[in-house]
Design goal:
18% of the residues lie in helices and 23% in strands. By secondary structure, the protein is α+β, with helices and mostly antiparallel strands. It has a single domain, classed as Oxidoreductase, molybdopterin-binding domain (Sulfite Oxidase, Chain A, domain 2, Alpha-Beta Complex), CATH 3.90.420. Strands 5, 6, 9, 10, 11, 13 and 14 form a 7-stranded mixed beta sheet that branches. Strand 1 and strand 2 form a beta hairpin. The longest helix has 13 residues. It binds the ligand Nc1nc2c(c(=O)[nH]1)N[C@H]1C(S)=C(S)[C@@H](COP(=O)(O)O)O[C@H]1N2 and molybdenum atom (MO). Ligand MTE binds next to loops.
């Protein structure tokens, strides 16, 4: 379980076993009164603030009854670096097991650029569980219990300058790790590697935007984007870029892979929108995948902003969502 605790020695971190993580969650859930940090399981670092804030209600708790099974979340994936098939990434990612020495390069319009190990980042942020809907642009969806932290926590650590208007993310580019990046892997169809994505700085700072390190209380499996992937629940799944090695703060709107490849089909914003159809299919409904039967599933109406309109619609006030799809 990728919940990091600080030990007494400077900068040293270790990972809390899964059982302690769940105990902590139970504990936080049942917490009502005042509490000192020392009352938590040994080594768990949460500020009093965090405890108070998270004790009220876990974000996404109301979706618990709709959770997709752990098996489908980890065996029905889109990860073209491994394969364009949905089931193959789970097999091909078996040997992809990055550890906490994974480096993320932070660059661009930022006061504290550099190579940050994941370990270093995790020692400075608060991880929590969040249950989110995940809506793929292909019109299937799941409900996923992520472990992660708000991207805004990392942003405030690295201190973007006032010129930072966008954030660009890139996936690891290494054909030895990702067979899909080998020349000719897709025949004549190619994607411009590395996979890239971008958000406005407002979207990146929104409290629903997280960097996920785990799913179902376990470290992210390779196929889900180990060891660190973006999750932006109100946008189509392709925005939620996996296995991130670079985060760059920019003045200009960054290139995003699917927008670059097929600009008429995939926009930069990619907000889930039942009223704006994909040129080749309707976005009004979605196939909700809950268990191994994969396609023997319910078709349900798609919600504006994937059900998060109350939290995020204000970000797009005055924007023509048909034009900026
Ligand atoms: N690097 C990278 N990130 C990616 C993709 C990909 O092919 N490569 N696929 C995207 C798409 S289309 C979706 S729907 C989600 C799927 O995430 P999941 O496999 O964890 O459900 O990952 C997104 N992130
Ligand atoms: Mo997707």
């Amino acid at each position: 379980m990728a919940i990091v605790r600080k030990s007494d020695s400077l900068g040293e971190t270790s990972v809390t076993p899964e059982a302690i993580f769940w105990k902590r969650r139970e504990f936080i859930k049942s917490f009502t009164g005042a509490l000192s940090v020392s009352a938590l399981a040994p080594g768990i670092v949460l500020s009093d603030n965090t405890v108070a804030q998270k004790s009220s209600k876990m974000i996404g708790e109301e979706l618990r009854g709709e959770l997709s099974s752990e098996f489908v979340v980890t065996h029905h994936n889109n990860f073209y670096e491994f394969s364009t098939d949905k089931q193959e990434p789970s097999r091909k990612a078996r040997n992809f097991k990055p550890d906490s020495n994974w480096k993320i390069n932070i660059s661009g319009e930022v006061d504290k650029p550099g190579d940050y190990t994941l370990e270093r980042i995790l020692s400075r942020v608060n991880e929590e569980e969040r249950i989110y809907r995940l809506r793929c642009v292909e019109a299937w969806s799941m409900v996923v219990p992520w472990t992660g932290f708000e991207l805004n926590q990392l942003i405030s650590l690295v201190k973007p300058t006032s010129k930072a208007k966008f954030v660009e993310f890139k996936t690891l580019h290494d054909p030895e790790v990702f067979p899909g990046q080998k020349r000719g892997a897709f025949g004549s169809y190619t994607l411009p590697w590395p996979y890239s994505e971008g958000l406005t700085i407002q979207e990146a700072n929104h409290p629903l935007t997280i960097l996920a390190t785990g799913v179902y209380g376990k470290p992210l499996p390779g196929q889900n984007g180990a060891p660190l992937r973006l999750v932006v629940p109100w946008k189509y799944g392709f925005k939620s870029i996996k296995s991130i090695v670079s985060i760059r703060f920019t003045q200009e709107q960054p290139v995003s892979t699917w927008n670059e490849r097929l600009p008429n089909e995939y926009g930069f914003y990619a907000n889930v929108n039942p009223k704006v159809d994909h040129p080749r299919w309707s976005q009004a409904t979605e196939r909700r995948i809950t268990d191994e039967s994969f396609f023997g599933v319910k078709r349900i109406p798609t919600k504006p902003f994937n059900g998060y309109a109350g939290e995020v619609a204000h970000l797009y006030k005055g924007l023509d969502l048909r034009k900026f799809f």
